[in-house]
Amino acid sequence: MVEEGALLWDPTPEAVKNAKVTRYAEWLGRPSVTYQDLWQWSVDNPAEFWTSIWDYFEVIGDRADGPVVTGVMPGVQWFAGSTLNYAANALRRAETEPDRVAVVFRDETGARRTVSLGELAGEVARVRAGLVRLGVGVGDRVAGYLPNVPEALIAFLATASLGAVWSSCSPDFGASSVIDRFTQIEPKVLFAVQGYSYGGRWFDRSSVVADIAGALPSLAATVIVGSPGWEELRSVSAPLVHEAVPFGHPLWVLYSSGTTGLPKPIVHGHGGIVLEHLKALSFHQDLGEDDVFFWYSTTGWMMWNYLVGGLLVGSAVVLYDGSAAHPDMSALWRVVAEEGVTYFGTGAPYLTSSMKKGLRPTGLSALRGIGSTGSPLPPEGFAWVYEIAPDVHLGSFSGGTDVCTGFVGGVPLLPVRAGVIPCRCLGAAVESYGAAGEPVTDEVGELVITVPMPSMPVMFWNDPGGERYRESYFADYPGVWRHGDWIKILPDGGCVIYGRSDSTLNRGGVRMGTSEFYRVVEQLPEIADSLVIDTGQLGQEGRLLLYVVTAEGHSLTDELVMRLRRTLRTELSPRHVPDQIREVPGIPRTLSGKKLEVPVRKILLGIPPERAANLDAMANPEVLRHFS
């Protein structure tokens, strides 16, 4: 195993000098400040910090003279009286650089097309005009049931330019899952496709689209992308104008994973997302106008929203539609090589799967950075990245749909160490709270945010009194955001994420996040995937159950069971040897790839699978029956 904390990459003096966050520090008049000091200043002085982001990036909008931030969490208001528009900022370079490539589209069939900034702005103007003809105006909702294609980006930007509110689901979502989401927001227009390709197969979704549309009486129109209806919608040329809206005006509605109950409809504002994504993409991913930015995602995951934010900093964005593993696990790496991608992001499982397959991607000479999120990346995953690309800056990030960004992540000023996230992100006042509800260092605790961020939700849809919003984040520590992850903050500011705090393991008083467990189990070449569940309840110790998916050509033999037990005893503790180890055909995951620990635990405690998990929000609902 790779030692946690082992140094893998150290920025050269030239890299530090050229980093975009260094230029920002110089602009602030703090050229010699350390990153930790810069972070401390950003959270101690939120009004000054976020104002500097607006000014440094010359955000297009009208910044009022009123207070930058008023109130306390969760009732915070940012930039009162200020107006702007996300689309205006995303397309700001279209008039001066119309021929610059804005979008590169690739899919698993080999299709490729590019869209210039001028073409993108023109298409947005056409679709915007079509939406106006359908009666869409400020505050109306527009929904997309779309794959990751340029038309999804065009429809979103057209919606945003109008001051209407966007929301999207990927077409691999089932009808009831989409209906659970879209009925909450009552969209006026639905963009959809009749089908999509994935893993070499075509999936017809025409009946699903009909079911969704039939469940949405608010619809004035359903527009099928690629059909005569789409061509009619975009048939009229029009000048591109942008509606100036208040800083906190709803931009889009994202949703919690929806594994149980109705998904939370999380509303983010134009201003908060513009400032946050400018900051995060420029200073932490080090992206700018010379970059090609690719983050593998679907339109149903917040990373799609983060990816298209690359337009804000002038990067070209790569949209990829299809399976990451078709026709083989090298599919995404080929796109990185062929398109000269400079920053490639993906879920941690793709990196670990590439590692376990023994891949050695080539043609990565343009690549400067790799991003990882979705779940903790084990130290071995860190080390593998540096085996294939020794000079890249690896940024392991952790955040969430709730803020559409990362709380903790990488920055090109700091070294990369195996299994360690280098820093708390600028403007994110992350602390680890111990059992007494106070900050602790070098100790696992609850991840909390003690100072507001402008990309925190402006509200939940249909939650006028804010009760559901408060219960979601502020019930445990009034005035402090509890995120639901275990985190350890190291003395030097580095961080280690240990998984969800509501799925933690607690054996004989020893508390440990599930990510540590997976690291030990999945290092064995015979194990392809795993899930660990502690059935203990408050005041009552339960059973520790380990489920494994064996690698191709292997099975769960008695010898392998003994080796698993021995390895866990040695590398963790005797308390963490499972009471039972079982082989299953698959580990249940959400559509965005996260392991479903909490729903499986509920099933093991007697809750029926259909009540424990939203089957339509799962990538593989058929495997749940193996856990009852």
Automatic annotation (TrEMBL):
Q: Which Pfam families match?
A: ACAS_N, AMP-binding
- InterPro entries the record matches: Acac_CoA_synth, ACAS_N, AMP-bd_C_sf, AMP-binding_CS, AMP-dep_synth/lig_dom, ANL_N_sf
Which keywords, in A-to-Z order, does the entry hold? ATP-binding, Ligase, Nucleotide-binding
| Gene3D superfamilies cross-referenced by the UniProt entry | 3.30.300.30, N-terminal domain of ligase-like (3.40.50.12780)
The keyword Hydrolase is assigned to this record: no
A molecular function (GO) held by this record is: ATP binding
GO biological process, alphabetically ordered: lipid metabolic process
Q: Does the keyword Chaperone apply?
A: no
Give all residue intervals belonging to the Acetyl-coenzyme A synthetase N-terminal domain.
Answer: 35-90
**PROSITE patterns linked to this entry:** AMP_BINDING (PS00455)
Q: Which residues form the AMP-dependent synthetase/ligase domain?
A: 92-450
Q: Record's family?
A: Belongs to the ATP-dependent AMP-binding enzyme family.
NCBIfam families xrefs: ac_ac_CoA_syn (TIGR01217), PRK03584.1 (NF002937)
| Name the record gives this protein | Acetoacetyl-CoA synthetase
Q: What organism does the UniProt record list as the source? A: Sinosporangium siamense
